[in-house]
Amino acid sequence: MTKKIAVLPGDGIGPEVTAEAVKVLERLRRDFGLKIELETAPVGGAAYDLHKHPLPDSTLTLARAADAVLLGAVGGPQYDTLPRALRPEKALLGLRAELKLFANLRPAILYPQLASASTLRPEVVAGLDLLIVRELTGDIYFGEPRGVRVRADGEREGFNTMVYAEHEVERVARVAFDAARKRRKKLCSVEKANVLETSGLWREVVIRVAKDYPEIELSHMYVDNAAMQLVRAPKQFDVIVTGNLFGDILSDEAAMLTGSIGMLPSASLDAADKGMYEPIHGSAPDIAGKGIANPLATILSVAMMLRYTLNAPVLADKIEQAVSKVLDRGLRTGDIYTEGTKKVGTKEMGDAVVTAL
Ligand code: IPM
Ligand code: MG
Q: Which residues participate in Mg(2+) binding (predicted)?
């Protein structure tokens, strides 16, 4: 059966990197029998410019109907003064909530070819392969009440609510335990149970779920310590499971261990493995339109799509091998460039991957 993929390029470098990932998909369709049909729609600031809303009904309807969503990036300084409900970021949060994409998988893998691109010493990061499973539809990101209110004394205060229901913790914990089962069988649950009630409950639920996974070695870590351990000795981790806010922060930190956030894909999955796939980097407005952004994170996001939603693991491997080959050939975009390698632009990098396929 033909699978439908919604392509939402978005803002900044989003359209440039998405175009390269689409080339890869087209190649797989033409030469490797992948049965897909692509449809593009605006999202984020691009959608606001066209429809005065970052997530127009037509885009949401397309995303709902699709088997998988490929997203570039959203956001840009020209939208930062809009009311919060109309900002590009709201489209991303809206898609996550509407499509019930509660499990966000963010692998941080150091390609051996890029060991010297990391700011950490090679022996600290060589061979790094960790997976952050971030809860994506709960926590302080969505908790109510929220807002800015005026106190009795006339001073304004901002407030948000960190909240997790047991079922929300349980379902993301299961995704993480299942992932650990297919890897090195270690899971570290990260929270702040020494201070927060939400985290205390989180830990209780994770311990309860662990009973169904006796073969997994479970540990718990406070988020401040986890942030430190990630730069001190990142190879101690296999799978990390954490809440929405902590996961947002730790996944950026983990990304940087690998040298560039331009290399890292992500998958956001619902209970039936329908997913939205996007590079974890943002819209990078400073380099947008220059043709120099790294398309590899988006291309690798397509590999995750093939593996998790389209059930084509062989093609997923193929993409990952093609990326590795291109790195072997010494091709580098500016973000991963080191002396002695060959600097290329977004298109050249995308074309090289398509050729390597
Ligand atoms: C991410 C981003 C988003 C988030 C922003 C753009 C809303 O930082 O996907 O990590 O905070 O979740
Ligand atoms: Mg983030």
A: 224, 248, 252
Nearest CA to ligand 1 atom 12: 248
255 pocket-lining for ligand 1 (C-beta < 6 Å): no
131 close to 105: Cβ distance less than 8 angstroms: yes
The structure tokens 């290399």 sit at 263
- Say which amino acid occupies 1: M
Kindly give, in sequence order, each residue whose CB lies less than 8 Å from that of residue 237, ignoring residues fewer than 6 positions away: 130, 186, 188, 229, 230
Tokens of 44: 């984020």
Burial class (CB in 10 A: 0-12, 13-18, 19+), 81: exposed
Q: Is 253 in the pocket of ligand 1 (CB under 6 A)?
A: no
Q: Which residue range is the domain that position 62 belongs to?
A: 1-102+270-357
DSSP summary character for residue 2:
P
Is residue 80 domain-resident? yes
* Atom nearest to 244 CA in ligand 1: 12
Alpha-helical runs (H) found in the chain: 14-32, 45-51, 57-65, 88-98, 122-125, 166-181, 197-210, 223-232, 244-257, 296-308, 313-328, 346-356
Q: pLDDT per residue over 243-289, tens digit each?
A: 999 999 999 999 888 877 888 999 999 999 899 999 988 899 999 99
Q: Give how many domains the chain has, as a whole number.
A: 1
CATH number at residue 314: 3.40.718.10
Tell how far the Cα of 249 is from the centroid of ligand 2, in angstroms.
Answer: 6
